[in-house]
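This part of the workshop introduces the protein records we will be handling. Getting from the letters to the tokens is the skill we practise here. The record below serves as our worked example for the rest of this section.

…
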Amino acid sequence: MTERSRTYSWADPAPLAEATRTLDGLTLLTRIMDGDLPAPSVAATMGFKLVEVAEGRSIFEGEWQEYLSNPAGTLHGGWYGTILDSAMGCAVHSTLPAGTGYTTLEYKIQITRGAGPDAGRLRAEGQVIHRGRRTATAEAKLTDTAGKVYAHATTTCLIL
């Protein structure tokens, strides 16, 4: 057995937590994407990043890495869930005023194909379907650069 190791770092989360209380969602996410604020540590842990954001929409990108694989050698289902939840949640967050947060109440994913080392870069695109006063719903799709769908998801978020 050949043992491997992985080392990575992340920024102090305190400035990001403070910014969430003072910035509207779209500004906050834009500043994270531009590198003015640190990304949440889950992005470094899971190997994906926010690459595009607009009101009601967000896109994350990531790709297969050996440390993310399941016993069959494809991306673990938890990775699909995490990147899709991030895309949907950030799409909702992009619509919120300063001092307002959200939490995922539930989400459902449908994985349509396994992503192995040859899958290349995958894009999770989240879009708000409905944004009310107390709840929001969104959907997301995970595709490769050729447009093949690897998974799709829906969510309901509670606005705090």
